[in-house]
Design goal:
614 residues; alpha/beta; eight-stranded antiparallel β-sheet; seven-stranded antiparallel β-sheet; 27 strands; globular; binds 6-O-phosphono-alpha-D-glucopyranose
Length: 614
């Protein structure tokens, strides 16, 4: 939610900020703004809409200056318009500030500032913070970093901020609490951003700021970090491993399509060095390090949101079937507020692409307090969730930029599958022969995903054309394909704005069946061997009500094909591995429908990729 970028150095800041905002646009895209300091002047340009509209707006303006801050917004307080867009100024115009997060006590602070004579232009909590810092700075004639520090002791909520002071322009002050911030260290230049993507093309040396830390970077090349208690901290400098090509769309029309097509490689990357079918081993460093605690856990609790929650649900099927460990899958936002029963015998598994989702982070903090072990399955290296866990594994999917998650989902499922197979074998709940068979088949999955992509895309595009005008859609699946039904429905909703619901196929009888008529596409994921006859009956029930049946089946299936209006065939695999194949056609289906409906596939309305507010 909201992207932040700032620059201080010898280059012209404007293009760095605009390009940085484009890279961060997945975090929010309802308005954007830039502030530049040049020759005693502070120039601020803000525009409702996307970054390209800001760039257009600033085209004939003064954009000189080698220090500046930029912001792309996902509105929380105040509607998306030019005035509420960041950066915000303090009352005397001396300070300008960008912010990601929510200042929860902003109304109280605002009332106090109004009494001091402050007036406000926008409806945002951020402007209140700018005024508060100014008030403290003026009152005691404080250096900007000290005013920021004291102001932050008065703030309740989440923030990542960067502040620029017109009277001290060779300096930027940045701070974070519960919203991410990373500092890039270049050659006589500094970058500050919400994530490393705007920084990677200039430097690979970065410092991830910790909660309640305040960093000051200066034109003289100094970087100083203090905590909110005013104690100096030693910066931990890390090397990124982020190539610029990973951040580009290449020949694809959309990032989402590129990311769908990357999956044969990303799933293989997730397994690389972790599985050998030939030698019969699967090794996950994070699991091995904590094997005692993990394999003896009384239960696993998965905490996640959105698509990651769907991956977690597949984890439940995998762990319970293969490793016989009881699993609960929780929406992180519910878990954190319902005083759950968690103790030191539990392992809480956090699933998160971004590693920054506010609710997931908060749920983990709660579980940690209660003594549970925290295991993270994360994509974004160095992210907050990756850093607070006791142990964990990266999925190595590379940057995922399309807001609708695809390759991160299959990465998460691959990781959970490896974990479940490994634990099943170690705990003696699967025989060696089945263990070896699953490893062998896991090895075949990247090639099978490739085959799904090659063989089904054209047909799916055709089917998309047939159902693109539907107003509702129903996705049905059983067993491992039930979470896939949920995920298929979510993908469709997210990017094409068609209302869709995922249901366990048999549950359809308890409600959604009332909605079925000839205008309702029903997407049935029916690759299971177990309960196959049951799902055939469910398909019959839909057919009897004239629903339009689109089925995803195993290659060679004729029974369901004969009942369906359209059939998509995918290769056979062992049932626990099915989700890795059956989700692919559903990703493609939602993609093609969204394109045909003229939707912005990569930046669907109202959504953001990294949800750092509750
Ligand atoms: C947002 C994104 C989803 C994502 C969810 C959880 O809603 O749009 O794609 O699944 O957040 O994010 P996480 O980064 O924790 O996986």
């Amino acid at each position: 939610m909201c992207g932040i970028v700032a620059y201080l150095g010898n280059r012209t800041a404007f293009p760095i900020l605009i390009n940085g905002l484009k890279r961060l646009e997945y975090r929010g895209y309802d308005s954007a703004g830039i502030a530049l300091y040049n020759d005693g002047e502070l120039n601020i340009y803000k525009k409702k809409g996307k970054v390209k509209e800001l760039a257009e707006h600033a085209r004939d303006k003064e954009v000189a200056g080698t220090v500046g801050i930029g912001h792309t917004r996902w509105a929380t307080h105040g509607k998306p318009d030019d005035i509420n867009a960041h950066p915000h100024r303090s009352g005397n115009g001396r300070l300008t500030l960008i912010h990601n997060g929510i200042i929860e006590n902003y109304e109280l602070l605002k009332q106090a500032l109004l009494k001091e004579g402050h007036t406000f232009e926008s409806e945002t909590d951020t402007e209140v913070l700018a005024h508060l810092i100014e008030e403290l700075q003026q009152r005691d004639n404080l250096p900007i970093e000290e005013a920021v520090r004291i102001a932050l002791t008065k703030v309740i909520g989440a923030y990542a901020i960067v502040v620029m002071d017109k009277n001290d322009p060779d300096k930027l002050v940045a701070a974070r609490k519960a919203s991410p911030l990373v500092i890039g260290i270049g050659d006589e230049e500094f970058f500050v951003a919400s994530d490393p993507t705007p920084i990677a093309e200039y430097t690979q040396r970065v410092v991830f700021l910790n909660d309640e830390e305040i960093a000051v970077v200066t034109r003289q090349g100094e970087l100083q970090i203090k905590n909110i208690g005013n104690e100096v901290q030693t910066p931990f400098i890390q090397e990124l491993d982020l190539e610029i090509e990973m951040l580009e769309k290449g020949d694809y029309d959309y990032y989402m399509l590129k990311e769908i097509y990357e999956q044969p490689r990303t799933v293989a990357d997730c397994m690389r060095g972790r599985v050998s079918a030939a030698e019969g081993w699967v090794r996950l460093g994070g699991v091995e390090n904590q094997i005692e605690r993990i394999s003896k856990a009384r239960r696993f609790i998965v905490a996640a949101c959105g698509t990651s929650w769907h991956a977690g649900l597949i984890g439940e099927y995998l762990f319970e079937e293969l490793a016989r460990i009881p699993v609960e899958v929780e929406y992180a936002s519910e878990l954190r507020y319902r005083n759950p029963i968690i103790d030191e015998n539990d392992v809480v598994i956090a699933l998160s692409q971004s590693g920054e989702t506010a609710d997931t982070l908060a749920a983990l903090e709660l579980a940690k307090e209660k003594g549970a072990m925290i295991y993270g399955i994360v994509n974004a290296v160095g992210s907050s969730i990756a850093r607070i866990t006791d142990s964990g594994s990266y999925i190595h999917a590379g940057p995922e930029i399309g807001v609708a998650s695809t390759k991160a989902f299959t990465g998460q499922v691959t990781l959970l599958t490896m974990m479940a197979i490994s634990l099943g074998y170690k705990r003696g709940t699967i025989p060696r022969s089945y263990y070896l068979q699953l490893l062998e088949e896991l090895n075949n999955i990247p090639a099978k995903i490739e085959r799904v992509l090659e063989k089904t895309n054209d047909k799916i595009e055709y089917i998309a054309g047939e159902i693109k005008d539907a107003t509702n859609a129903l996705y049905l699946g059983r067993g491992y394909n039930f979470p896939i039904a949920l995920e298929g429905a979510l993908k469709l909703k997210e990017i094409s704005y068609i209302h869709a619901e995922g249901y366990p196929a048999a549950e359809m009888k308890h409600g959604p069946i009332a909605l079925i008529d000839e205008n309702m596409p029903v997407i049935v994921i029916a690759t299971n061997k177990s309960a196959y006859e049951k799902i055939v009956s469910n398909v019959q029930e839909v057919k009897a009500r004239k629903g339009m049946i689109i089925s995803v089946v195993k290659e060679g299936d004729t029974v369901i094909r004969d009942l369906s209006d359209y059939t998509i065939e995918i290769p056979d695999t062992d049932e626990p591995l099915t989700p890795l194949l059956s989700v692919i056609p559903l990703q493609l289906l939602s993609y093609h429908i969204a394109v045909m409906r003229g939707c912005d596939v990569d930046q669907p309305r109202n959504l953001a990729k990294s949800v750092t507010v509750e």
